[in-house]
Specification:
binds flavin mononucleotide; 18 helices; three-stranded antiparallel β-sheet; about 575 residues; single chain; NADH Oxidase; alpha+beta
Length: about 575
């Protein structure tokens, strides 16, 4: 049998300290200290305690050169144990599994320190919420008490006089988008995410936008994020919970085909599984879509072989993807998050990944924000959430404090949290410009016809040219927007004021604008306002009522239930 040492192993002389009453009573400091040698070998992923003889033997043997086992005169027991735990490898069939782990690591070209860091910082079964409770660091105030003051929030390197102040440039819509990005810890599981919105976020963040085919087997992708070496090692795995038209479960996202690949179900109910994956951070458990950022290390290390910076480059890419995800979600009117507090071992098992080749780097997610902030979010400028009357001011000292009841920034009939829809809401609001006041039912008192016509023509031109915001609009939606616009523009042709429209026509124009707004923002139709002119039962007078689609559905459902209830009562009688 020929043997050699495994490719990578580090030794740690570890001291374990425990309280010891006998020690204290004997006049000591009450602490029992025990030192032991631990072998950290990344192909194993678990620490192995070794004794002096084992450590010495590992130090003598080459990791590259095979030698006959009986040529080294080593103790048989020592040799057998090191082979059994995989710190030594042999060409004997009974050691084939350990040899394969070792060779797998060699084939992946890890930098040895990076491989060790990666292998031994993975969690399994960690409850980070309980850990925070146990350490008394649940809130910012508690953290200050337990940990003392943190280093200053932003460094200053020169005296006040020496600082060159820069101009603050007037904000654009991009600043507005950035300002509305806040880590979401309050998801609304009662509301499903439209399929198109789900697809749009994935397309913007993870899809290949173009490719360069160097040879048939060497292809470089172009994506919306930078990537070390242009290699884009990051795979996107999904836990889909509440998306229209997508069965809840685990998926792999195929970046070139912009397609989902269904994977076997996890070993427990989905929400419970998500809770375990995010180390019991319940504030993320209801996210409509949970994304595991999963780098294929072998892709990056193919170029950066044993490179000291390779692992860092991969980790940095996770940040780029996360920020792009936050912005894509914010732009779609959704909340997003990232967490590094994840149980990697269970993630690898559920998604069938070998951590030597492919890791679990972080978990992100996105979805609708809930109506009430139950877990604190950092929004001191109130760009996402608005304090309800009489609520205490949002402040950093509230961080982590549960159950602060806030209303939402964007009140009125729309229940979407204050978010990116604002930008395109402006469109409708502008279109209905100069309405100043609403008639109490949500519909403006007057319609600014020239402004509407001008804006619709602009949107029409942009849609036809597939420009800007409209280039991602699905083809079917684009066609329908253009068709409804055309009908409306025909009606408005030659008119300068809404006095030239009948009451019904005014309602039609309003409804069409509402419909277009929802369509181009790719929002849920539930929020769309619909006005009707109808005669209430028993009345001869026509009145106008305006309700959201969701409210209308609810009213219909209530009416149906009432009818059912009556039927039931009749049947009982
Ligand atoms: C790499 C990374 C890891 C994070 N991990 C967690 C986490 O485990 N739990 C959590 O609630 N937030 C997590 N966050 C979110 C931060 O707490 C949040 O970004 C920070 O409080 C600032 O708030 P903002 O994102 O709303 O500006 C993480 C953020 C980053 C960038």
């Amino acid at each position: 049998m020929r043997i050699r040492r495994c490719a990578v192993v580090y030794f740690e002389p570890r001291e374990q300290v425990e309280f010891d009453l006998a020690e204290l009573l004997g006049g000591g400091d009450g602490l029992h200290r025990e030192r032991r040698w631990l072998a950290l070998a990344p192909h194993l992923g678990t620490e192995v305690e070794v004794d002096g003889d084992e450590r010495e033997l590992l130090g003598v043997l080459s990791p590259g050169q095979w030698i006959e086992a009986d040529s080294i005169g080593a103790d048989g027991g020592t040799l057998a144990r090191l082979l059994r735990v995989g710190l030594l490898v042999s060409d004997a069939p009974e050691h084939a599994a350990m040899r394969e782990r070792d060779e797998s690591l060699r084939r992946t070209y890890w930098h040895p320190l990076a491989a060790t860091l990666h292998a031994f910082t993975r969690w399994s079964g960690v409850d980070t919420v309980q850990n925070q409770k146990d350490s008394g660091t649940e809130t910012a105030v508690a953290m200050r008490q337990v940990l003392g003051a943190p280093p200053v929030e932003a460094a200053r390197r020169v005296g006040d006089d020496a600082r060159v102040h820069l101009p603050r440039i007037a904000p654009t819509s991009f600043d507005d988008l950035l300002a509305r990005r806040a880590t979401c810890r309050n998801f609304d599981a009662s509301r499903t995410l439209p399929f198109d919105v789900f697809a749009q976020v994935l397309q913007r963040v993870f899809a290949a936008q173009a490719e360069v085919r160097v040879t048939e087997d060497t292809v470089f992708l172009k994506k919306n994020v930078p990537s070390g070496g242009g290699l884009h090692p990051m795979e996107c795995y999904l836990i889909v919970q509440h998306v229209d038209g997508v069965a809840p479960g685990l998926y792999h996202y195929q970046a070139q085909e912009h397609a989902l690949e269904a994977l076997p179900a996890p070993p427990k109910p989905l929400r419970e599984f998500v809770m375990d994956m995010v180390a019991q951070q319940h504030w993320f458990a209801d996210a409509h879509v949970v994304v595991m950022l999963s780098p294929r290390f072998d892709r990056t290390f193919w170029k950066y072989r044993h490179h000291a910076k390779g692992y860092r480059v991969v980790a940095l890419e996770g940040g780029h993807l996360s920020q792009t995800l936050y912005l894509a979600a914010t732009d779609a009117g959704l909340g997003a998050f990232i967490t590094g507090a994840i149980n990697e071992v269970e993630l690898e098992q559920a998604f069938g990944l070998d951590p030597i080749h492919q890791g679990a780097l972080a978990i992100c997610g996105f979805g609708w924000r809930g109506p009430v902030m139950e877990t604190a979010e950092l929004d001191p400028a109130e760009r996402v959430w608005q304090r309800a009357e009489g609520e205490p001011a949002a402040g950093v000292d509230k961080l982590g404090k549960p159950r602060i009841a806030y209303g939402q920034a964007q009140g009125g009939p729309r229940t979407v949290p204050g978010d990116s829809t604002m930008r395109f809401l402006v469109f409708a609001v502008l279109a209905l410009a100069s309405f100043g006041a609403c008639a109490g039912d949500g519909m403006p008192k007057s319609l600014d016809i020239p402004a509407i016509v001008q804006q619709q023509k602009q949107i029409q031109a942009d849609i036809i040219a597939e420009r800007g915001h409209y280039k991602d609009l699905p083809a079917a939606k684009r066609t329908e927007v253009l068709s409804r616009q055309a009908t409306m523009l025909q009606l408005l042709d030659g008119k300068t004021t809404d006095k030239q429209l009948s009451a019904d026509e005014r309602v039609d124009v309003f409804n069409t604008l509402e419909w277009i707004e929802v369509a181009i923002n790719q929002e849920s139709d539930d929020e769309r306002m619909v006005c009707r002119r109808e005669k209430p039962l028993g009345s001869t007078r026509t009145v106008r009522t305006c309700r959201t689609v969701a409210d209308e559905r609810e009213a219909k459902e209530r009416a149906r239930q009432e009818l059912d209830g009556n039927n039931n009562r009749q049947m009982i009688r």
